[in-house]
Amino acid sequence: MKKMYLIAVLFLCMACSTAILRAQTAQKITVPNNLERWITTTFAKGKIPPFSFIYNDRPSAEFIRKWKHSSSKLTSDDPNVIKYQFSYTDPISGLTAECVVDGFPEFNAVEWVLNFRNGSDKNSAQLRAVNVVDLTWKSETEGDFNLLRLRGSCGSRADFQPILSTLSVQDSVYMFPDGGRSSDNSAFPFFNIETPDQKGVIVGIGWTGTWFADVHRTADQEVSLTSGMKYMDLFLYPEEQIRTPRICLLFWEGENPLTGNNHFRRFMLAHNSRKIDGKFAEYPLSAGFEWGDPAPCNEYSCLTEELAIAMIQRYKQFGIVPELFWLDAGWYTGCGGPDFTGGNWSTNVGNWTVDTTRFPDGLKPISDAAHRVGAKFMVWFEPERVDRSTLFAKLHPEWMLKRPNDNCYLFNLGDKEACAWLSKYIGDMIEENGIDYYRQDFNMPTAPYWAVNEEPGRMGINEIRHVEGLYAYWDYLLERFPNLLIDNCASGGRRLDLETMKRSAPLWRTDYQYGEVNGYQCHTYGLNLFLPLHGTGIYNTDDYSFRSCLGSTMVINWEIFSIRGSIPDMQRVIAEYKELKPYFYEDYYPLTGYGDQTGDDAFLAYQLNRPSDRSGIVVAFRRKDNATNNIQVKLQGLDPETTYAIQNDNDGSIANKTGRELAEGVTLAIDQAPGSLLLRYTPAEK
Fold first, then answer.
1. What is the pTM of this model?
2. How does pLDDT run across 305-321, given as a tens digit for each residue?
């Protein structure tokens, strides 16, 4: 009976989330002249707010203006951020919808989170079809509306592939991720809506669960957006409160839609990235301890304290010490050993104690060794996935969400006692072992666990509580350890959203085939459109491989105990990477369009431009089956009157061209296939 109920409410919620409350609030799409006035006007008393929901089977547009309205300006810790709180309270039932709004005038951006609270002593009526944003934007002119979005991550060459769609009247693009992880496979929670009159809005969604977004061309000069939780149909207990997804809208205008994307990239660094001492934290160049031990070893299950310290000394000996040493999966109890009867790294998640056979004094000696050579130390955890045979499963079975015929449990972060216990437990491990940075992985879907454990009439509550608990857990670690960085991995980049990016970044953005660099080129090409902080591994030191792995962070995977490679090449790559890394923090321009560029016949190129010093780079790749040795591209973001000196790193040649000439077209020539090209440009000396 419970299963039939779940199926019924799933279909109900899918129907109501896609079509019921679209376009209840309309406004002209434009960059606000005064962002604070936009906030106070949009959420003003007597107006329908830019969100919607169904309560007690009635759409909020019918009653929200009759609810008690209050507003207050909040104190902001950041002088560049405006904060308001608006509440709407039903005088009959006591339900309150509370919206906390942040405004960022420098970036013409606004964010809000919608909370609900039942202020009565009785269960509330059913709350469903919650659209945390429900807006229609009107263009001043007729023409095309475009939507630029990305695929999510599924471990393929097409991860984060850009998709540009032109929306005809009544066209709709409905997006949601697979399985409960926010950027898993089918959708990515950042996109750019462009209007015909050279304006637009970048949308970011902060929800580390199953969000949805529907972009719908409603009329000749209109496009609407609704977004929220995909599965939500519930009542609230007396005095119970819930939160819903965060929404971000960044308004832009200009001839080039990438104006919006680049404005958003800068916004992400300024307000949605980890801060240490008031500045955005640069994520490090890192290296690990895994060099392909023989079967049945996997991951780090055969690593020992002595070997790890020897590797650190090897890096020092070669003069290639990274900023961070990274200990990945397999260091905990049950992994490794002479007979491997205890299983491997994957089947021992939940045994969060150090394997004292291989690490008799814990991980502190390895941390100390890293610190002695001037590096940080990071350790991998996967606390939410718990194998049924492990310590956590046996110690606290009441905190495990289970589903039939599955050997793994979901640690219930939605249980406040469980969340507090885990926070302290992992925090104590970090402190005791001298861990500087924390890596969190998550290798299973969550949605099936939430759904099968749902109470009748409470669809979505497990998801809400788990997501709230995840944020509380990370926030605890970040507050306890002010210099901590969190590396966010979920089978690669399957949990990238506005809320996780506020707290973390993906050092390993996809679990696509390790070292297959053509895929890495594709991932960089797409993900850079919205996120400036992400990285991948580098396995070889040749130019084609190195340039394919470039990003704002990078992971060294060289075999320093073998005869492969050379020390001078490793030293050269590290030095060049440190020169190029700063370019990933400013403006990005894809130069070869948005078509399918995953094939081995592709010629792919992108540009990184630094308005701060008017310099930049162009990175290009000709893959093995590409039949032409050159393409024409148009550089962007340059001053047309400035003369630039363009250095070709392949042959050392230098040419001078004006910004106007470079914008009209420049030839990228690569004679070899596969082959790569790196151009650097700066204003020419007069």
1. 0.95
2. 999 999 999 999 999 99
